[in-house]
């Protein structure tokens, strides 16, 4: 199977070299890797250039944007700019963060997963982060059937059906919901351990704290699903304030009548799917 990788990179000089090393050492190499140097002020570009000199399938795209690391919009903007450099001659496409180390057989296994069924539209492993003792531990705050946005692979059919990535906070949830709306499944492999070099959310702008609640509004969750999802999120993170931030973000977006990410029919499907999962967990 042939695949493309797009890596948005903003000031990733500390980690990017390790990420690219893990890509060029894959047992199944990509057809092309686009590294989007997104307004970096460190040595990110120098690292990209060093790899380009050795590996012709790696290309660079320099772009300008805000220096604020806002979740959702910044990374998807960079991804979409990289996407413009690629054609449609691929079997699957990957959005990869610039602070991830993948096992050498990662994409060979992803290709194998996609080959098992045309119904599988999104696939990935699980994130591990290093604790203070130097031990790599699972850090997967979502359900086990969720693929983290840091290392997401989509078949061409699925990526086309969902219309690519939505330019907003919550893009890596709405993509999976829309994939299921279009009849695709999500597949995760617990044996694929992706090392996440920067702990979740460490680079995000503090102004982003209300965006999760806004995302729940724009995905047409409705208040009660937002309430339940926010309670679960706050409990998993051990941060009670996250619950209140989500609710404030939801109510603020509702008051300001923010545009939805999905249409009415998609929203109805999403709510039914969410309620189904909530009930399954309550009565299992």
UniProtKB/TrEMBL annotation:
Family: Belongs to the glycosyltransferase 2 family.
Keyword Nuclease: no
Annotated Glycosyltransferase 2-like domain residues: 5-145
Species of origin: Arenibacter nanhaiticus
Cross-referenced InterPro entries: Glyco_trans_2-like (IPR001173), Glycosyltransf_2 (IPR050834), Nucleotide-diphossugar_trans (IPR029044)
GO MF annotation: an example: glycosyltransferase activity
Keywords from the named record: Glycosyltransferase, Transferase
Name assigned to this protein: Glycosyl transferase family 2
Pfam family, one: Glycos_transf_2
